[in-house]
Write a structure and sequence with these properties.
One of its GO terms (molecular function) is xyloglucan:xyloglucosyl transferase activity. InterPro entries: Beta-glucanase-like, Beta-glucanase/XTH, ConA-like_dom_sf, GH16_AS, XET_C, XTH. Belongs to the glycosyl hydrolase 16 family. By secondary structure, this protein is of the alpha+beta class. It contains four helices and 15 strands. Helices cover about 15% and strands about 35% of the residues. The longest helix is centred in the first third of the chain and has 20 residues. The chain is globular.
């Protein structure tokens, strides 16, 4: 009996260890300069805590931004961001991945500013082979100007998942069988920026930026990249290797995650291109499965 219990304990321990090994690594926060460089308007970026936190400034002359040093093919990318407080109408705070080619691929988080007291809008979009127009918009269930929140992208051969504080808010599945291009062969850099877009960002451009409130400031920290850098071995990246994001459990959402997305869709979604029959009289092919959410 004791030997049997000992064997079962070993089996349980083995299964527990296997389950833990299948869990993605906790994001490792590194200083800004490890993975990123300023993109433009260097004097509009301020550094704090030995480069572990930065602020982007926008005034009537220019915005600013930064980009990853490397290009990546698949992985997990996240950033902690605190949005522009107060009257931020016309401003866009962005965190996105983009390839460099004309038929570019892109995965977007765009945070659209507001008049004081109005909720921020988070717009997500996916470009594949140069085609975008896949906007979805939600209200956030918290005030993103009061504290930092983590925004993440999981990208593999099977799906692209957008997360807010580890809650999935959108999934874009690989629908090549339906004739929809999927980003799988163009490396992307990671970009972050703060810029003026008062021609469209707030109420379709009706609300203009109030420059008397400038400079507008957005905070960034926790500069996490866990992706396959193509400059190291592009062939390895294309095959996905043994990276955790290619494991079977990350090829689809689990039941709890699908439940979360349905919660976001029901409670907070204010626009979904999949249901916009004015713009798209014919349902886009990739939206067929989206109707089940």
């Amino acid at each position: 009996m004791e030997f049997s219990l000992w064997i079962r304990s070993l089996i349980l321990l083995s299964l527990t260890s296997a389950a833990l090994s299948a869990t993605p690594r906790k994001p490792v926060d590194v200083p800004f300069g490890r993975n990123y460089v300023p993109t433009w308007a260097f004097d509009h970026i301020k550094y704090f805590n030995e480069g572990s936190e930065i602020e982007l400034l926008l005034d009537k002359y220019t915005g600013t931004g930064f980009q990853s040093k490397g290009s990546y093919l698949f992985g997990h990318f996240s950033m902690n961001i605190k949005m522009v407080p107060g009257d931020s109408a016309g401003t866009v705070t962005a965190f996105y991945l983009s390839s460099q080619n004309a038929d570019h691929d892109e995965i977007d988080f765009e945070f659209l500013g507001n008049r004081t007291g109005q909720p921020y809008i988070l717009q997500t979009n996916v470009f594949t082979g140069g085609q975008g127009n896949r906007e979805q918009r939600i209200f956030l269930w918290f005030d993103p100007t009061k504290a930092y929140h983590r925004y993440s992208v999981l990208w593999n051969m099977y799906q692209i998942v957008f997360f807010v504080d580890n809650i999935p808010i959108r999934v874009f599945k690989n629908s090549k069988k339906l004739g929809v291009k999927f980003p799988f062969d163009q490396p992307m850099k990671v970009y972050n920026s703060l810029w003026n877009a008062d021609d469209w960002a707030t109420r379709g451009g009706l609300e203009k930026t109030d420059w008397s409130k400038a400079p507008f400031i957005a905070g960034y920290k926790s500069f996490h990249i866990d992706g396959c850098e193509t400059s190291v071995n592009a062939k390895y990246c294309a095959k996905q290797g043994r990276k955790w994001w290619n494991r079977p459990e990350f090829r689809d959402l689990d039941a709890a995650q699908w439940k979360r997305i349905k919660w976001v869709r029901k409670k907070f979604t204010i626009y979904n291109y999949c249901t916009d029959r004015t713009r798209f009289p014919q349902i886009p092919p990739e939206c067929r499965r989206d109707r089940d959410i």
